[in-house]
Amino acid sequence: MKAARFYGPGDVRVEDIPEPEAKAGQLKVKIAWNGICGSDLHAYLTKVPQYATSDTINPVTGEKAPVTLGHEFSGTVVGLGEGVDANHWKVGQNVVIEPLVSCQKHSTCAACAVGTRNLCPLAAFIGVGGWGGGLSEYIAVDTRYVHILPDGVPLEIGAMIEPLAVAYYSVKRSGFTKGQTALIVGGGPIGLFILKVLRSIDASNMVIVSEPASGRRELASKHGATMVLNPLETLIDGKPSATALGAAVYDATKGVGVDVAFDAAGIQAGLDAALLSLRPRGTLVNVAIWEKDPISISMNLITGRELNVTGIMAYTGVHPELIEAVAAGKIRNLEELITRKISIDDVVEKGILSLLKDKDSQVKILVHP
């Protein structure tokens, strides 16, 4: 079968590899769609810790590069391994994969023992650290990582459940409730998904999006942002300024500040603006994976306003309720965020490189293996 294999930064190859068969406790899934993730782009540019390398064996998957890429995917069950409950799992079911994997050593791993496997020190992802991936024709995967896609939810939307789970979990961690206000820094896929989740909770509260790309600002407006700001045009002395962006948010909220700010950009200026935009005792949720760390943060600002600062690592335990919410129509029009569909042969040129070069018009690219 065809598979897009990750050898290291700048080196993704579409190759023929053996087709997997379902082992005991596994399903064989024919993959329909796989979304290209921002973390895939980072890994293409530079070394990212979670991604497989050629010189280190992943302690959970037992694999090293090359591995098959792709962790945002949906497909159809085509085979059941030995011991799989045939009353629950059936050939022909459409499914989505929850790709986060961990050590599952409950006797020694405190995170896995209490159900927060996303915080396991060895946490990895199918399609990142091994065990196959969504950028292939088939995958064999343990049933514990599979969720049935309800009737009426297209497989294209199924491929968006994984990144949507990041947004859904971010909003849950923020404590956002109906009637509150929010700022989203970064209008890329995750920022736009956060906007969709916020709007599923409250259709009319103030949600501000800060994003430099005009195409993504237009999408933010279309999908419910009360106000969109271009951080390159919020100026002090003719230069872009986090202070000016924070002031614009305070003006928009009549001098109060927002209840919650989400940093989905992962740059210093965005973090500064998010903190400056918060009301006293407001909450900042860092969603982004930062390329450069450490960064600076104003502890005096946090102390002076008694701000709550937290972060999220992927997600845990939200897939069932999220899938139910999508099936019930609470989170709608996700297909409008799909800006391109391509074949696996074009995954580098029309997928990865296109997203890197054209952030203005491209948001979510789906690949059909």
UniProtKB/TrEMBL annotation:
InterPro entries: ADH-like_C, ADH-like_N, ADH_Zn_CS, ER, GroES-like_sf, NAD(P)-bd_dom_sf. GO terms for biological process: butanediol biosynthetic process. It holds the Pfam family ADH_N. GO terms for cellular component: cytoplasm. Its cofactor is Zn(2+). Residues 8-353 form the Enoyl reductase (ER) domain. PROSITE patterns: ADH_ZINC. SMART domains: PKS_ER (SM00829). Keywords: Metal-binding, Oxidoreductase, Zinc. GO terms for molecular function: (R,R)-butanediol dehydrogenase activity; zinc ion binding. SUPFAM superfamilies: GroES-like, NAD(P)-binding Rossmann-fold domains. Gene3D superfamilies: Medium-chain alcohol dehydrogenases, catalytic domain, NAD(P)-binding Rossmann-like Domain. Belongs to the zinc-containing alcohol dehydrogenase family. This is Enoyl reductase (ER) domain-containing protein. The lineage of its organism: Eukaryota, Fungi, Dikarya, Basidiomycota, Agaricomycotina.
